[in-house]
Amino acid sequence: MRGSSTQSLFPDLDDTPTARDELNFAEFPIALLSDRPAEGVSELVFKDQITDKSSGRLVERRVKVLGIDPYGLPNSKDEEILLGLISLTKLKTDFTSRELRFTRYELAKHLRWPTDGRSYRRIDEALERWTATTLRFENSWWDAEDKEWKDVLFHVIETAIIGRPHVKGKGGIVTVQWSSVAFKSFQAGYIKNINLQFYQSLDSAAAKRLYRFLDKHFYHRPRLEYDLAEVAFEKVGLSRDYEPWKVKQKLQPAIAELEERGFLEPLNTDERYIKAGGRGRWRIVFVRKSAVPVKAVEAGQGSESPLVAELVSRGLHESQAKKLVAEHAADVVTLQLEAFDWLMKGKSKPRKPASYLFSSIDQEYALPDGFTPKAVLQAQAEEKKRQLADEARKRQDEERAKRLEQQQEAERRGKVDAYLKPLSDAKRKEFEERALAVGPAELVEAYRKAAAMKLSAWAERHRYILFAHVIEAAEAQAQPA
User: Fold this and answer.
1) Is omega for the bond preceding 70 within 30 degrees of 0, making it cis?
2) Half-sphere exposure for 481 (CA within 13 Å, toward CB)
3) DSSP E strand boundaries for 119-261
4) Can you tell me the distance from the alpha carbon of 81 to that of 126, in angstroms, rounded to the nearest whole number?
5) What is the mean pLDDT of each run of 10 residues along the chain (481 residues)?
6) Which of 159, 212, 446, 455 has its Cβ near the most Cβ atoms within 10 Å?
7) Distance between CA 460 and CA 388 in Å, rounded?
8) CB-CB neighbours of 225 under 10 Å
């Protein structure tokens, strides 16, 4: 119950068939597919590119997973434990507290693992790794509260205090404190249900990883199409050393398992893989089976989001609003809200506003002609401001350079005039002939060209430059070594 200050240590966990998955963690792998990394590997890197719906620009996202000795990198079982911990936090505190208290028995029972020493050691090892592992999301962490992509560097679990069963009165209670970054996302409702029993029944780690990623995106549409390499390398975590034919071979068992279990619609090879432009480029297609074994949306999920209130205030029922917020990314909902408000201020108002708003989010309508998102307007204003600042800076630089040039020219003229003044006409002519003979070729050429074109002012300027150079060279040569 939200607002409760205590946590029951032994709730009836068998009545909770669904777990919770944080949507940033479902988007990119944050653990190994295998139990052990290759020798010397202490870092995982995943990246992709997406189109920012507010600006239309291509954005690169990157995730780094940094492990340290002696704990190493998290693996697929550690991810399963992480799902269990998120679920227990929801069940016990309804995300009102960053601190979670539980026993190993309790977590193992929730995960439907054997309640024995091996499972408990496995839980301890996972807590050690998650506490030691650093995650770096570069332009890839969606902050559902602030509604923007962010760069974040954090540990999923900030601290883990592991009580030992043999300590009298302690009962082996484990106290975990989530990082503020992860917990903020939980509270903002950027989580979804995941059928834990179905997830655990999958045999391969690749199938589990693919299930989490696709289950997140099937909320938006029943057919998904991606770059094959991106799915295999950046979403599932297969080795990047594989050629396209090998990628298909390695990915096929996971796809086949999800087809057999009724999550994916079976497709033949020509339907599953589409040749894309460029050598070795392929697209991969996934279609969700109409009768899926996964409960899509929990009633009331995302109810803490302020977007629910925004939708209700525009005529939607609360259940509709909660469904939309649970099933769609916050930036999609926000953008369609902006477009809806813009339409309502114009002449072409929807005849049934609430129905239109629901459908525009649920089906992700194209933005109406003439509408410009606030983010784009802000970006345009910032770009205009930057351009004006650049122009002002450029003018200042040009004026400064012009003053400096005028100053240098005045000094040059003064030096040449002072040198020539005491000379007779014959000596001056002799000096000019010598300057044309020994001066730098480019200066002599510029002077002769200006004189030939009868550009007196320009010729005079080049004449002074040439003379000054010859005088300075002569003075430098006359100085004692």
Assistant:
1) yes
2) 0
3) 134-143, 148-154, 157-162, 173-178, 191-195, 223-227
4) 7
5) 37 51 94 75 90 72 92 91 93 91 90 89 94 95 90 95 63 88 93 86 92 89 88 92 87 94 91 80 86 36 68 88 82 88 88 88 82 82 87 90 85 77 82 76 76 71 69 63 50
6) 212
7) 38
8) 12
